[in-house]
Amino acid sequence: MEIAYFVLLNVLGHLCFVGSRMTTTLFALQLGASEFTVGVLVALFAVLPMFLSVTAGRVIDRLGPRRPVMIGLATLACAATLPFFFPSVTVLYFSSPLLGTSFMFLHIAMNSVFGAHATPEERAVTFSWLSLGFSISNSIGPLIAGYAIEGFGHAGAMLALAIFPVIALVLLWRRKRPLPRPERVPRPRNAGVLDLLRVPGLRYTLIASGLLNMGWDIYGFLMPLYGSRIGLAAGTIGLVMSSFALATFVVRALLTMLVQRVRHWVLISSAMGVAGTAYLLFPFVHSVPLLMALSFMLGLGLGASQPVIMALLYEQSPRGRQGEAVGIRTTMMNGSQTFIPLASGAISAALGMAPVFALIAALLYGGAWFAKKRT
Question: Are 220 and 103 in contact (CB under 8 A)?
């Protein structure tokens, strides 16, 4: 029941984040924004977390996760309501970084909770349950957002999405027991990010994590843009994106049974190869059933690796600095979310979508080779 409660908190916050990111993309296009402007807006979801994640991780290591989770949920709800009251591209420039930063606090804190709740032997399985929760919210988030847009308009959809973190905030406020947290160990004086990067196992894990998260997060930018370009309705785009999340749910449900039997780096290498192939095929597909099939294939590849990455990251981190290590991962992830949408928007506006898909595929193939070397 504890795991289910933690998963529910994370799912409710992530539903708002995932749905808002898709709605922001389509809202900006509806307001007449260019593809480059859409790329800037998507990048803004990540720009502040890129600079603040390590600091946030250190704060969570010191204070524990409860207050950061509550602050993250409250700010998520407030940020999602802004475009409802002030529907303009200008306001989207403010709401996007607020949504990204608030979810960053929630994400790092909940990783701390799940890592501390599990024993070392159970950690990969416990993170599989967390990832399964992400799959649930990734599955229904775009679907909820798409049909909310069709039913209430873009601004109304943002208000509807704000309800989910409010529910999570009430659930957490009613809980009297403290959330699990890692052992509190005094941080060494003058210890910095470079000290963590000198740990070989942690360094290799962060590199693989950065590539996988790049493949994951760029999908949230490329698919609405590509679907809009080929004439798909908002609900149809949400349906295609939900097939990606359904695949992550399926593969993670299997991982709860198989993760202790498969070598971690073999799994990571295979996942990157499958994801790279899916990205390579995307620009040649226009029919909805085939787009759903490719999204499902991509979800299988990327979804299989995340629980293993998070377990490796927690285990390879020095005691008392797990939040800081997750903060480094989040900084890398948000760095790719900041710069890749900008580059992708510019490239797609000038050359079309195919070069963007090919570039992501090449990076993932390179990551598969790197992970294979670790075996």
Answer: no
CATH of 2-177+194-374 among 1.20.1250.20, 2.20.25.110, 1.10.10.10, 3.30.1120.10: 1.20.1250.20
Classify residue 304 by burial, with Cβ atoms within 10 Å: 0-12, 13-18, 19+: buried
Mean pLDDT (the chain) is: 83
Burial (CB < 10 A; 0-12, 13-18, 19+), residue 374, is middle
pLDDT score at 168: 93
Q: How far apart are CA 349 and CA 77, in angstroms?
A: 33
Alpha helices in the chain (DSSP H): 2-30, 35-63, 66-85, 89-117, 123-161, 163-174, 193-197, 200-229, 234-258, 264-281, 288-316, 322-351, 354-374
Which run of H or E residues covers position 98?
Answer: helix 89-117
Lowest mean pLDDT among 119-123, 127-131, 209-213: 119-123
